[in-house]
Structure formats: structure tokens, C-alpha cells
Amino acid sequence: MNDKFFLRLVWIVTAVVLTVVIALKLVPAPTTKPSFIYLLPHIIGGINATCSVLLIVSLIFIRKGNIQAHKITNIITFILSAIFLVFYILFHLYEKDTKFGDLDHNGILSVAELAAVGSTRYVYFFILATHIILAVVVLPLILLSFYRGLNMQVALHKKIVRWSYPVWLYVAVTGVVVYLMISPYYNF
User: Fold this and answer.
1) Measured between alpha carbons, how far is 74 from 141 in angstroms, rounded to an integer?
2) Which of 33, 110, 127, 135 is deepest in the core (most CB within 10 A)?
3) PANTHER family annotated for this entry (predicted)?
């Protein structure tokens, strides 16, 4: 596979994923839901936590010069991230947005509910906004990093990883934080 073809593929995959995620906001949820759908947020949170740890382990491996362990760890992390994406899409197909602070799960934030969460709501939205924006940005960077790394284009790999690694780690860690902050308000 040549570089030009792969770069096109990266942008196509990124555009498709972005389009699907945006479409999830526009498509109404099906009326019947599979029973397992309510397990997905917990699995997604666990995947993000696992990816966070694996990304740190991967960095330790490469710093120690263990390229094979670094490569295997990153492949596992990449696969888990792909599974996360499938589960995220599946969950948000059936369940639309959960409102932060909605303790009675009626979809409306009362004055009392807003007062109960206070400024924590703004912290949540800041973390969520940066998480979403950087998740979009990091996808092509991860794909390029993988391509360069698997093809042993070490100089190019290092150049891209300088940006992709901290962003990917931030997205994984904030995914866990978002999950922990929103989970009390799930309507199930």
C-alpha cells in the first residue's frame, strides 16, 4: 500500500466516522431497545480506562527500547478503541443524550437539579467539549501514527506521535472522567 492511497483512506475513514457520529444526533432512536444496550456505557467506560493504562504502558515499553511490546500494546489499544467506537455508535443509536444533573431522569433540568450540580455542570461541559473536539482531531493522527509505525517509518512515526500520543491519552482519560460524571444521570 503506498502513502498516497493510505492518506486518502485515512481521510475517508475520518469523514465516514464523523458523518456517522453526527447522524446519530439527527436520527430518531428506535422504539424498541435490545436489553444489553444499558451495559454499553459501563463497557465503554472500562474500555477507555483500559486504553488509558495501555497507552502509558506503551510509552514505558518504547522508552525502554522494547519495540515489539510497544507495537503489540498499541495494536491492542487500537483494537479496543475500534470496539469502543462501535459500542459508542450502537449505544447512541438507541439512547440519545443524557442531561448532566437530571436526577429524576425526566429529560428536563429543574431549578433544584441545576442548583444541586452548580458549577460542576460547567466543568463537565468543558471536559466533554474538549474530549469531543480532540477525539475528532486524533482519529487521523492515530491512523497515520499506526501506518508509519507498522511500516517502520520511524522518523515520520515519531513526528506524528509527538502530537497523537498526548491527544489520544487525553481523549482516553477524559472519556473515563465524562463517564464517571454522567453515569449517575443515566435513565436506566
Assistant:
1) 14
2) 135
3) DUF420 DOMAIN-CONTAINING PROTEIN, HYPOTHETICAL MEMBRANE SPANNING PROTEIN
Helices (H), 118-185: 120-150, 154-182
pLDDT per residue as tens digits for the range 119-141? 999 999 999 999 999 999 999 99
Nine-digit cell string for 15: 469523514
Question: Closest Cα partner for 21 from 118, 116, 111, 86?
Answer: 86
CB contact set of 156 (below 8 Å; sequence gap of 6+): 148
- For cell 443515566, what's the residue? 186
| Cell numbers representing residue 158 in the block | 515519531
Q: Which residue has the cell 495494536?
A: 75
Q: What separation, in Å, do the N-terminal and C-terminal C-alpha atoms of the chain show? A: 46
Burial class of residue 51 in the structure, from the number of CB atoms within 10 Å of its CB (0-12 exposed, 13-18 middle, 19+ buried)? buried
Instruction: Indicate the average pLDDT of the chain.
Output: 93
Q: What is the CATH number of domain 36-185?
A: 1.20.120
At residue 1, the pLDDT reads: 62
Q: What's the predicted TM-score (pTM) here?
A: 0.90
